[in-house]
Amino acid sequence: MVSSGAALSAQQMLLTAWFIVGIIPLILQTRSFLKFVMPHKITETLVVPSDAVKETTNMTELCPALGLQMAQVWWNLETTHYFNLKHGRLCHLVSPQYNCHGRYVIGSERTKAYHTAPSSCANDSFPVDMFFYHGSIGFYSFYEEVAGTYCTIDHTLYGLIDGLGTFDINGWLLAQDTGSYNYRDMDEDVTKCKKAYDEEQPWFSFTKICVFQHTERRIIID
């Protein structure tokens, strides 16, 4: 016969296992979701000033990053242009396989390599700040800001996600985006879409108006 103490202990163990397997992942997912929907602000050093001049000469030498290693995933990086600013060189990056556009700036003084970097990078790492918008299916993008180090040995950025968000931008506008010093979220853009929808009723759907509102097109072809 099983004692009440043993039965209670078994119930407690079962409850603990259920909590770990079921509840904790749900809490973490909810936490990540809240980070995505909350307004985000791009670090000021990664925003392109209105008077900055776009440059494309010697990009391989001046913007040497070829990849990003983050969350155990490899991201191919290509540089399309850069801006020489007072605080450093701001490089515009593209990751074609994930439809990402963003920017990064590499510090000028050596630092301790990020822990995921190989041992060969120990004495050849520099601080790096970067962000990118990851275009999704639809008319919005996920924002991810990364802090870490750049290794001159393998031309790779290593880091972790330091900020999350969502913004109503994609396609051509995403490639041309220079950032903003203000907080960004979906609310303002959804309001604009709703206003356009109200003006165009009853011929256009709410979704179509939102998509074309942000690509600056007014012609709908079914």
Report low-confidence residues grouped into runs of 5 or more: 200-222
Helix content: 25-40%
Strand order of the largest sheet: 2-1-8-7-6-5-4-3
Order of helices and strands: HHEEEEEEEEHHH
Q: How many helical elements?
A: 5
Number of domains: 2
Termini separation comes to 72 Å
Mean pLDDT: 79
How large a portion of the residues is in β-strands, by DSSP E? 25-35%
Structure description:
- Helix content is 30%, strand content 29%.
- The radius of gyration is 23 Å and the shape is globular.
- Residues 200-222 have low confidence and may be disordered.
- It starts with a helix and ends in an 8-residue tail after the last helix.
- 25% of the residues are buried.
- The chain has helices at residues 4-37, 59-62, 171-176, 187-200, 206-214; strands at residues 67-70, 73-76, 78-85, 88-95, 100-106, 125-135, 141-151, 156-167.
- The protein has an eight-stranded mixed sheet.
- It is built from five helices and eight strands; from the N terminus they run H-H-E-E-E-E-E-E-E-E-H-H-H.
- With 222 residues, the chain is an alpha+beta fold.
- It folds into two domains: 44-176, no CATH class; 186-222, no CATH class.
Features:
single chain; globular; alpha+beta
What's the arrangement of secondary structure elements?
Blueprint: H1 4-37, H2 59-62, E1 67-70, E2 73-76, E3 78-85, E4 88-95, E5 100-106, E6 125-135, E7 141-151, E8 156-167, H3 171-176, H4 187-200, H5 206-214
Helix pairs in contact: 4-5
